[in-house]
Amino acid sequence: MTSVTFDQALLPAHWRDFVALTKPRVMTLVVFTGLCGLLAAPGHIHPILAFTAILCIAIGAGAAAALNQWYEADIDAKMKRTANRPLPAGRMDRQSALHFGVGLSFFSVILIGMATNWLAAAVLAVSILFYVFVYTIWLKPRTAQNIVIGGAAGAFPPVIGWAAVTGDISALPVALFMLIFFWTPPHFWALALFVKTDYAAAGIPMLPVVSGEVVTRRQIWAYTAIMAVAAMAPVLLQLTGLVYGTAALLGTALFAVFAFQVYRRRESDPARMAPEKRLFKYSILYLFLLFGAVVVDRWLLA
């Protein structure tokens, strides 16, 4: 039986494989936070230009994901949850993934710049470069704090959406950036706890692999506390009103309950990771809830 290498795909890549390179499930949250940043921004933007801006955010996120998979093809092959991606499964060659990712990157940045403004284009370019070079290439294989610093890459979309409308960056999009930034560690470490064997097999120094579960659970709880402050900052700074304040208070309280359940557990049985999975799933809903509340609040205050 002939083995398949990453640079020798059995067949030409199917269009579905190119879609898979963009990580569409992850892109959903990116697009939503970018859309909320755009809708919450003061001023007016033509609907076609607004659609173009959000499309570019999606394309830029997909480009970064494709370049991430191009660089990590060997690593993905060692992990059960990523082994069936197009590159490690041998359905696509690495050069195609590289060209696809680079092409999408340039297209998204140039298009959003021409459709809206070059500040939005610059922030989009920074987000792509940060994810690929700072997180994927530099931080992820070298430090257990990779997701703490690298989480900034996923925090740019609301800033891009806001800048596309206003041409500037003010306090609210910065506050939303900080919310995602501090939300990322507890969200991602909850996932890392129940897939740590994958990371260990691939040699990725994720926190549960390097420092153990106890330290990871403690860090999840600590970053949840910091995230709670970031979540309430828009209210304290009077950037939002009652709708967001209520959603942030109740939503963060429930997040804290789930995070505390993760923190107090000391078992390492991978078959009994219900609190970790619950926190991970809820953390996604939490971000949808808070960003949706921002938009409703801004419209009510307008």
TrEMBL record:
Its main location: membrane. The chain crosses the membrane at residues 26-42, 48-71, 92-112, 118-138, 159-182, 220-237, 243-263, 284-301. It is found in: Cell membrane. Coiled coil: none annotated. Pathway: Porphyrin-containing compound metabolism; heme O biosynthesis; heme O from protoheme: step 1/1. GO terms for biological process: heme O biosynthetic process. It catalyses: heme b + (2E,6E)-farnesyl diphosphate + H2O = Fe(II)-heme o + diphosphate. Its EC number is 2.5.1.141. Carbon 2 of the heme B porphyrin ring is defined according to the Fischer nomenclature. Belongs to the UbiA prenyltransferase family. Protoheme IX farnesyltransferase subfamily. This is Protoheme IX farnesyltransferase. It comes from Sphingobium cupriresistens LL01.
